[in-house]
Amino acid sequence: MMNKLKLLIAAGFLFCAAPSHAVGLFLEPGIFYEKGDHETTWPSPFSSSTGSTHGGGIDLKLGVSFGSVFYLAADGMWSKVKFEDSSNDYSANATSNAYAGILGFQFPVVGLRAWGGYVFNATLDPDQDGTYDVKFDEGKGWKAGIGFKIFIVSLNVEYMQIKYDKSKLEAPVATDFDEKMENKVGMISVSFPMNFGD
Questions:
Q1: In 10 A of CB 5, how many CB atoms?
Q2: Dihedrals φ, ψ of 32, to 5°?
Q3: What is the pTM of this model?
Q4: Using one digit for the tens of pLDDT, what is the confidence trace for 50-82?
């Protein structure tokens, strides 16, 4: 799945880079609300656990557009969420961020939009709860979304699936684990896609 997404983005870049397409700047700031469900595998003496995240954040896509129809962009997402996990009834505020490369399509003025891409780095860092403080790092995965645009306002629904390759216990004793955490996240957002110069 990941290799197919990388190939799709690379193919999109080669297609969009063709000289027959007018090239411009693509900028899309936005705000979103996310709800995620995760599963975590912990080493002994902890047991495997499940939990959720929910909260709001901001998103910024920046890249190039081609004929105001296709766009290729870097995508940065930052959010403050509530993290809850069944292991030791962990509950704390958390900071989440993710960075992706995306390829998208949109009608120039009014109409449907769609995009997809590869998340190449993500972290989820809950605050300390009691004596425990955890962090999830080196997240990778994929995301996809659809939206409806009217001039520069777009209403969107997105889905993102991230697997964090590294789990870290920062308190009471700093320890790194190779156990995985997988987070499946749904998002609703309002964004403002803009094209300049194409």
A1: 21
A2: -145, 160
A3: 0.81
A4: 999 999 999 999 999 998 789 999 999 999 999
